[in-house]
Amino acid sequence: MIQNRKKMRLLRIVILVIGALWVWASAPPPGSITEGKIPAPQKGFLAPNFTLENLDGGKVTLSDYRGQAVLINLWATWCPPCRAEMPDMQEAFEMNQERGFVILAINATNQDHLSAVDNFVKDHNLTFPILLDSKGEVSQLYQLRSLPTSFFVDTEGIIQDVIVGGPMSGALLRTRIENLLPEKP
Amino acid sequence: MLPILQIGPLAIQTPGLFLLLGIWLGLNLAERLAPNFKVDANIIYNLVFFTLIAGILGARLGYALQSWEAFKTSPLSLISLNPGLLDPVSGLASGLVAAIIYGNRKSLSLWPTLDSLTPLFAVFAIGVALSNFASGNAFGMETKLPWGIDLWSAKRHPTQIYNALIAILILWKIYPKGKEGDPDHKLRGTTFLEFLSLSAGARLFIEAFRGDSTLFLGLRSAQVLAWVILAISMWKLSSLDSEAANG
To answer: Is the confidence at residue B186, as pLDDT, over 80?
Structure first.
């Protein structure tokens, strides 16, 4: 019995020593942790770049906004939660625009109607850029599976948070934007 | 990766579904096995129920207090369904306090209660691994191994699957069976401490293949924490052995 207990104690010490060696041996070499280095639509990765047309026909490229905090919001006019979160988004945009915050609202135009988008934007007095994903390329690039989906991108172009589904509440929007903007108002 | 399960007009968030399933199935199993640990199944159900409710309320209140400026202008956000408005530390603390208060009122003994909750923890660990697999979180490092999975622009270690498989093995190990099903066969607390040490050991091992580890002095912080938990749980197992040997 005592012999068994001694064996068990020795085994546990050996396990702890091997565990400590494993922690040391498996420490990641510099640069092996992939966060922020390659583009992927996931928290901690570089936001994949894209260029889309806005409602006026002008071209908008994500990388042009490097240095600003960006909310990329994928939406459609027929999606009730997308519609519900737009007023809070507009308010957040107006409050933080001067602090370097921008919203790129990407309409899934391949599954929407341009006239409906136009009317929706006018009805809700939306002043942030509305981009048209006519071929669904950005939806595919961002692996869109549910509308709305929002990506909060920091000034370095790194995705800090992904919100799938909605509507996002006003408080959620405000806290996420504050996390992206280092300076307080 | 399958973050959304679309059934007609209904879009179900699969990561959340796996977590809920983990709690539900785990709680059912814990209730069924509670007599093995000489604990009343109803008490286990109530304990988990109050802990969860207190945990969720505490997590939301904790988040709101930390971001009061954001909630001041839209107080209705306090009852928002957004899971992003929860603070895990506040939730854990308030859940723990509720569990302690309930346990004291019902005069529950610590070790048999923890033993009887272990099946819930073990099934929930499987749910967490599957939830991460569905969402693509807790992803692995890049690999050229044939079982690597395409995720986030690279072929990666399927760390979520490693976790799920090991969690199933741990559930099998702690499941009362044969002679061990006899409540007097095992020392009080052994089931929980075995689960804790096995889970810590598993995390210590699998974390080495993760591609999103947080670092602490150049080491993976989750591994350091897992090693400490492993050491404490094995030390406690040793002292239980000694207590038993000394009568």
So the answer is: no
Q: What is the mean pLDDT of residues A58-76?
A: 95
Task: Show which residues on chain A lie within 8 Å of chain B, measured between beta carbons.
Answer: 1-2, 5, 8-9, 12, 15-16, 19-20, 22-24, 26-28, 32-35, 38-40, 42-45, 88, 145-146, 161, 163-165, 168-172, 174-176, 178
A71-99 pLDDT tens trace: 999 999 999 999 999 999 999 999 999 99
**Range A97-106 burial, b when 16+ CB lie within 10 A, else e:** eebbbbbbbb
**Residues B124, B29: Cα–Cα separation, whole Å:** 11
> Could you say which of A146, A164, A171 has the minimum Cβ distance to residue B67?
A171
DSSP symbol at B77: G
What share of residues in chain A are helix, strand, coil (percent, to 5)? Answer: 40, 20, 40
Across the interface, whether the CB atoms of A35 and B212 are under 8 A apart is answered yes
Vertex A123: Cα angle to A117 and A129 (nearest 5): 55
**Could you give the residue ranges of the DSSP H alpha helices within A26-169?**
80-96, 114-123, 137-141
Assess contact for B231 and A13: CB atoms under 8 A.
no
Look at residue A32 and give its three-state secondary structure: coil
pLDDT, tens only, B194-236: 999 999 999 999 999 998 888 888 899 999 999 999 999 999 9
Q: Specify the pLDDT at position B240.
A: 84
Neighbours of A82 (CB within 10 A): 25
Interface test with B, best of A88, A145, A146 (most B CBs within 10 A): A145
Among partner residues A12, A32, A172, which is closest to B82 by beta-carbon distance? A172
Give the phi and the psi of residue A46 in degrees, each rounded to 5.
Answer: -70, 130
Q: Looking at the DSSP assignment, which residues form a beta bridge with residue A162?
A: A151
Contact B223 A33 (CB under 8 A): no
Non-local CB neighbours of B106 within 8 Å, separated by 6+ positions: B43, B47
CB A132 within 8 A of CB A107: yes
- Paired tokens of A134: 């006519």
Distance, CA of A119 to CA of A37 (rounded, Å): 39
